[in-house]
Amino acid sequence: MKEDIFELKQASIIYSLQRCQLFAGLPKNDLADIASFTDLKALERDSYLFREGEKCRGFFIIQKGGISVHRVNGIGKEQVIHIFRDGDSFGEGALAGDRGYPVDARAVEATQLLLVKKEEFIDLLGRRADLSLRMLASMAKHNRDLVGQIEDLTLRDVETRLANWLLKRCSDPASTQAFEIELSTTKQVLAAELGTVRATLSRTLARLRDEDVIEVQGKTITVSSPANLKALLQSRLE
Q1: Which has the closest alpha carbon to 104: 92, 114, 91, 117?
Q2: How far is CA 143 from CA 25, 82, 92, 177, in A?
Q3: Which of 103, 111, 140, 230 is the most buried (most CB within 10 A)?
Q4: What total of structural domains would you count in the chain?
Q5: Is the pTM of this model over 0.90?
Q6: What CA–CA distance (Å, rounded) separates 83 from 223?
Q7: Residue 177's Cα: distance from chain center in Å?
Q8: Pairing relationship of beta strands 66-72 and 78-85 according to DSSP bridges
Q9: What would the pLDDT profile of 26-64 be if each residue is shown by its tens digit?
């Protein structure tokens, strides 16, 4: 019975590793090796995964849920850097030094994730140059995402940021058919992700609704026409 539970746990970990871009395409034997030093973790909503400066235990891969990576300034205002979701990896950058995690990380909803342990993974990297290159590519992607977010926050207004956020979640941005987006978190969390406050987000949603760009029903946002939303976004960026 215990062996069956262990095998199911390992199979779940391997499946999640396969879904992560960092390990996509790796042979199953390699994934099994990584799974051997990977732990499953569960967090309730609003529980902290780690705090800024905390000793690095490893990096994380989300199985299901969402993690807000953020910093709090001197006056207590929280700035969301990114919200990671299913299949995303984060925390890789903290593996390289002894300064600990550079940010806070908190679950924005009930979350299941993997902890890939630091010491064992660094040892593996020393033996596998291909994995080192994958790590560099993953961290480069995180940097591009951060640069894009900085550009959004400094050069674009809230309506443009929201339109861009919605369009990225439409399966076919060229479609003229309505597309539903189900919010998995609160509007307060979405506002923080967009670098604004809930009241401003609510007003922005109302403006887009009045322009027949979207419909809002509870946690469901329906984009009337992704193609029209794309055209609106492009006009705002010109």
Answers
A1: 91
A2: 23, 11, 12, 34
A3: 111
A4: 2
A5: no
A6: 22
A7: 27
A8: antiparallel
A9: 888 888 999 999 999 999 999 999 999 999 999 999 999
